[in-house]
Amino acid sequence: MFVKVGNKEVNINDKEIDKLVDTLGISVDEAIQTILEDNGYEINEEVERLTKQAKDNKITATIHGAQKVRNKREVVRKEDPDKENLVDWIANFLRENVSVENLEITNKGKLIEFEYLGNKYKLDLVKRRPAK
Fold it and tell me: What does the domain layout of the chain look like in residue ranges?
């Protein structure tokens, strides 16, 4: 069905109109008006007023803020002396035997960052879990 809105003709699907008539129990004219307002072809002053009022009262922020807030638990890193020793050993080896620059242990049990021949590198030591 084509409906003239101002200087435009808008094509509205007949199935969409029938669906609104059946589900909302409204007339065909009301269904067409609803579709035009929903798609921005016409403005419903009452909806605009209520939307502005809701934004002014921050109702949606209150509703969304009312959701339960989960407490974040603090993650405690497990000490692993074997990994820390390996990282130290690798860092010392690179310092003494390889011409690396700007060597830094970023994470004492995991990461070593350095420069070698003008390129930046990062070594990440990962301890694999035993197979079950």
Answer: 2-65, 81-124
